[in-house]
Prior knowledge:
alpha/beta; Rossmann fold; eight-stranded mixed β-sheet; 10 helices; 16% strand
Amino acid sequence: MNKTVNRSVKLRVLTANTGQDMLRQLTAVRKIIEVARRDPTVVGVVGLGRNTDESDDAAALLRTAGLPLVNTTNSSSDLPRDFPNYFGLAATDEEQTYALGLVARQIARKLERPHAIVLSRKDRNGDLDRYTAEQRDAGRAMLRAAGFALGPDVDFDLAGGASLNAPLTGICQAERVPDALYFAGRVEDVRALMRGLSETTGCWNRALTVFTGDDLTKDTFSDSASIATNVTLYHSSLAPLDRGTNPGFYADAHRTLRALLDEEKVTALAAGRPAYEDELFSSGQTVIAYSATAALYDAAARGDVRRSAAETWATLHTVELNNMPTGTIAFGPAKSSVSGHLHGLNIVKVVRPGPSAERTVVCGKPAGVAPPLTAKDCKP
C-alpha cells in the first residue's frame, strides 16, 4: 500500500489459503494463530469474506487468540453482534434487504394481490454455506414487510449444479403463480434460475420480479443466458464504486492490475468510461479488500508506532478513513440500525429488453455517515 511508503511502520501481508469456497476456513485460522504466537508483528486478520457454518468458530478462535478480524465481504447479520473482535465492511443481509424492501414495497403497491415466494438452496447440502440460509430469512421478512402474501418456501439441491427444474415447475404451475421471488442462492445458480423462468409453463410469458443479495455482483450479465427477458432482477452490491470520493484510486489501481494480466485476456474498457466500471472491479472484492487492509493498518500503526494485537483491536473502534474508494471507512456501534448503518451499498436493477442485459443503479449510499435511504431514493 502506497500509504506506508513514507512511514516507519511498514505493512507486511501474509496470505492464508482457506480453500475453495472457504471450506478450510478453520484450518487456515488455526495456522494464522500458530504463526501469531511466535510472531508478535501479526496483529490482525483481513478477509474470511464468505459466511459458512465455520464462520462463528473461526471468529471465536481469533477472539480467544486476541486477534481482531477486519472482514471484507461477509454479509452476516449475526457475526458483528456476537463477536467484539469482528469489524465488518459489508452491508449485512438485514441492511441489504432493508434497501431492497424500499423497492419491493413500491412494486407491491401496484399489484392487486401481491404474492411472493422465497426460493433458496437446501440446508446441509455439503457446501457449508450459511449465506443463503441468512439471505432466505432476511428475504422472507423483507417481502412480508413490503406487503407481499407469502407462499411456502421452496428449496433446491446442488446435485451436479443448481437443480431447479422440479422446484420451478412447482412454482410456475401452482394455482397461484407468484409476482416476485426472493432468490437465496449463489451467482453460479442464476443461469439455471433464468433458464427455468424463461421456459417453464406458467412463468415464461409472465412478468416476474426477482430480488436477491450481493453475490450477484460477481455476474457481469454479459451473455443472453444471464437474465430472462420476462424478469426484472434487483440485487444489492456491497461496494458502491460510484459513490466514493477518491476517483484517482481507480485509475491508479486499474493501471497496476492491468499490468499484471496477459494482454490477450484483457478486455479494453470503452473510451470515456470511468475506471471503476472495468471488470477488474465489478465484484467489489478488490476495493473492499483494499479498504479493509487500510483500516487494519491505520489501527496497527497509529501515530507511526507499531501497535500490539490488543492495541490494534482497541484502536479499530476509532478508525475513520476519509477519501476512500467507497466513502468513509469507520466502524460504528455493533447494533446500529439497518437504515442508519455505516456500510456502503447500491441496489442494482438488471433487465434484458433486447439481446443484451442492461444494469442500472437504482439507489445507494456511500460508506460512512450518510442520510438513510428512503423510498423516494429507490424508485423501481
